[in-house]
């Protein structure tokens, strides 16, 4: 179930615009339920509509953005005229990324160092945005950690078919080259779930000051879908949207870590393919739904960007980063009245 932001009144100047607006918003009637595999809105229509509207200066923060999907999201948002704060844990890599974008003709990008695992860093970022811009319109939580130790050359030598990888059927094939440790799992969960929560909470007061209407986009994964958790009771806990909160989500994460420490993942009903990464992204999706319900004035969504060729999957992905950024950018630039509390598979709405 998705929670929808209220629709704002936008001036209509022609029958053609009016027809398009009716198609996208249906503002005279309650919007019909959105089903899986439905585009919301149709990407081409949304982009055409957006280009016809006034573009007040918007400010965005993108985490984990010195490379890969994060960097491409920054580039695409900057091309749309958004002022973007590119954040990265490594200061040199972050500043180098900003300089590269500026040399390509995008002066509207600035850098701020951020380790999403550091509460003081999140607070410092919020203070920087408050002092420099006075508000925030877009937050893209992209920083991530794979949660495993990998023999990269060994993995490449297996030459696993992408469809086999995506289906999860490669679990036993990769056992010799991908190792899940408790320490890596802790870092993964602290980055992917708690890092997202940490940064979101620090920036929420500034997001509420957005005139255009704030957007939070949590970059997730195909491995985040609830059907990938073998335990029916755990799936049920996280699918119960009305009773979902941080306490419930974090209780699930604690159980996962306890079972991992006891080497009881399989008997505990957890998936075995990238287990910590998977449950951390499941938790991120659940947190997305919590935020959407708690803050109905914001549009908060999560998105699987596709199987993209990036460092986090050791370059086993098949899509270019330009394609991987399409979904996050679409959700970051949703017009008023867009969906909230929803999961997208690239640019199509999917099932949690």
Automatic annotation (TrEMBL):
UniProt signal peptide: none
Cellular component GO terms held in the UniProt record: membrane
Molecular function GO labels: oxidoreductase activity
Pfam families attached to this UniProt entry: adh_short (PF00106)
Keywords from the UniProt entry: NADP, Oxidoreductase
Entries under Gene3D superfamilies matching the protein: NAD(P)-binding Rossmann-like Domain
Keyword Amino-acid biosynthesis appears in the UniProt entry: no
Keyword Protein biosynthesis in annotation: no
Family per similarity comment: Belongs to the short-chain dehydrogenases/reductases (SDR) family.
Protein name: Short-chain dehydrogenase/reductase 2
Organism: Anthurium amnicola
């Amino acid at each position: 179930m998705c929670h929808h932001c209220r629709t704002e009144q936008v001036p209509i100047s022609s029958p053609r615009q009016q027809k398009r607006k009716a198609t996208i918003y249906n503002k005279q009637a309650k919007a019909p339920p959105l089903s899986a595999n439905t585009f919301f809105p149709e990407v081409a229509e949304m982009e055409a509509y957006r280009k016809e509207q006034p573009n007040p200066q918007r400010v965005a923060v993108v985490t984990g953005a010195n490379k890969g999907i994060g960097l491409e999201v920054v580039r695409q948002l900057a091309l749309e005229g958004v002022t973007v704060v590119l954040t990265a844990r490594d200061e040199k890599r972050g500043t180098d990324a900003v300089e590269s974008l500026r040399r390509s003709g995008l002066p509207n990008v600035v850098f701020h160092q951020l380790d999403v695992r550091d509460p003081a860093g999140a607070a410092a970022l919020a203070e920087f945005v408050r002092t420099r811009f006075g508000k925030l319109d877009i937050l893209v939580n992209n920083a991530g950690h794979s949660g495993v130790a990998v023999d990269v050359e060994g993995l490449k030598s297996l030459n696993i078919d992408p469809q086999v990888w995506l289906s999860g059927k490669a679990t036993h094939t990769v056992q010799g080259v991908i190792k899940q440790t408790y320490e890596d799992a802790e870092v993964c969960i602290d980055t992917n779930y708690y890092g997202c929560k940490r940064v979101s909470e620090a920036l929420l007061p500034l997001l509420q000051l957005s005139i255009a209407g704030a957007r939070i986009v949590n970059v997730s994964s195909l491995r985040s879908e609830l059907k990938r958790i073998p335990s029916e009771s755990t799936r049920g806990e996280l699918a119960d949207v009305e009773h979902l909160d941080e306490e419930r989500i974090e209780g699930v994460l604690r159980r996962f870590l306890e079972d991992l420490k006891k080497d009881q993942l399989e008997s505990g009903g957890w998936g075995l393919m990238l287990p910590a990464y998977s449950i951390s992204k499941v938790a991120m999706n659940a947190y997305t739904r919590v935020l959407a319900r708690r803050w109905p004035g914001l549009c908060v969504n999560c998105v699987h960007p596709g199987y993209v060729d990036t460092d986090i999957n050791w370059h086993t992905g098949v899509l270019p980063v330009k394609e991987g950024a399409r979904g996050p950018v679409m959700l970051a630039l949703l017009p008023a009245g867009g969906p909230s509390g929803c999961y997208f598979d690239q640019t199509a709405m999917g099932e949690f």
